[in-house]
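Internal QA ticket QA-208
Title: Verify multi-chain structure generation after dependency bump
Assignee: T.L.

Test input:
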Amino acid sequence: VNVSQFVDIVEAKKALDNKRVSAVELVQEAVDVAELWDPKIGIFVSSLADEAIATAKKIDEARAHGGELGALAGIPLGIKDILTTDESVTTAQSLVLDRSWGAQGDAVVVKRLRQQGSVFVGKTTTMEFAIGMPDENKPFPIPRNPWSLDRWPGGSSSGTGSGVAVGAFLAGLGTDTGGSIRIPSAYCGISGIMPTFGRVPKSGCAPLGYSLDHIGPMANSARDLALLLGILAGHDVSDPNCVDLPVDDYSAALTGDLRGIKIGIDDLSRIAGAEADPSVLPSFTEAIKVLEGAGAQIVPVELPYYDEIVIATLVTMYGEALAYHQNDLATRWDDYFQNTREVISSGAFYSAADYVQAQRVRRVGQKAIATLLREVDLVVTPTTSAGAPTPDGFPTVATASGFKLMHTPYWNSTGNPAASIPMGFTADGLPLGLQIAGPWFGEASVLRAADAFQRRTEWHLKHPNLP
Amino acid sequence: MANETSEETPSAQALLARQHLFPNPDEIPFMDEIARQARADADRLYAVPEARYEDPSLIFHPRP
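Actual output:
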């Protein structure tokens, strides 16, 4: 199966604009691909195929009549099912979520995509409320990795990650509280970015950790991330944490070269230890050579307070999550997925003082990272130190030891933007990710580096084959 | 080891019950282990000397 005739949105847009393909043809292909893959890998909680084809027809009609079209007119997208949408129930992959909450209409980010002509082909799978592991005893699809069906696709933005990888849609929305955009991006071999905290409004998203949650795009290329983030970012009064700052022209920042950019590198092998996959360090070393070849100056760094900041993320996340879920957990314990209820309940093991201390440590970490990012422009690490695990081999994320091989939650506590892009494969064919982090509101620099890397490599062009 | 922790801190069940949470019996050993690790993790936060005089501030101040 040819998963997609287009590399990415940028290329598909050109074909639509030149009328080499119609929106209906593009969306129908995505729907056809999804129908082949979805039963095997659990992309969707709910398909919106019929609505998508009807929307695509309207876009083609508007185009034929010379109507004004948005920047994403006719582009098929997937939306994580913790974000509300006009046309479907939002479940957060949970029996517990009040369905009337999800009936509030489009989340701000969904509305912004819709206004640009996006075609939503489905609501994608997650972990329940974006935390925990699948539960076979609950009536929801089990997400699987398209590169190896016995592997987990990563989470919690599982279906968006696997769906982009197979071509069920060209891009989608994920959310990230401890790595939920970057981990599935790495495990599925696609690109994703967690923007600066406050850069993208979160209203209409079921919360996990209020002060850690971020919404961001997942796609086939850094240039698609730039296009999408330019649409998603910007102030909205409905989110009290959203910042009223101008939005950069991210696409214009993609110059293709990194001259004048100083990149700090930390392979985090001291954190991963002996459990790291042996493919990771060679892939990381090669990736750094590519960045250097693009003109970047490379300097070794060590991320400050690494363990403590990861712990601060978890104490904060589970404290905030338990506040949201306490009433429902007390009355509907068995309705939750088993691992979800256990992990969220771990918030009960921290005191109020622990929560406050976590916020003090976050402040220390934010200052330390700001200092480091005055010495270097970007910090690059592996996203994970192994390929996708089997569900049975996945450690519990309730405590910091579960994150030894996943290097993502650090940046949620500091609020810095961080992207993951494909950098290679393990010996058994599982994708690996390169994590690029930058200063607050430095998404343009992050994406510039990601795009420069992708202009010199082909990892992001690889797609899994239908088994 | 959960029984080692129980001499020093409340059990997982006691901490959960304070939040009106009552796991199934087969979930208790896992929760005990998580509680032990969580306490050890949280203790590390108090060992960051630079945090001693730091304000607990979230990243951005809400607007009026």
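Spot checks passed. Chain B touches chain A at residues 12, 15-16, 18-24, 27, 30-31, 34-35, 37-39, 41-42, 44-48, 50-51, 54-60, 62-63 (CB under 8 Å).
Status: verified.
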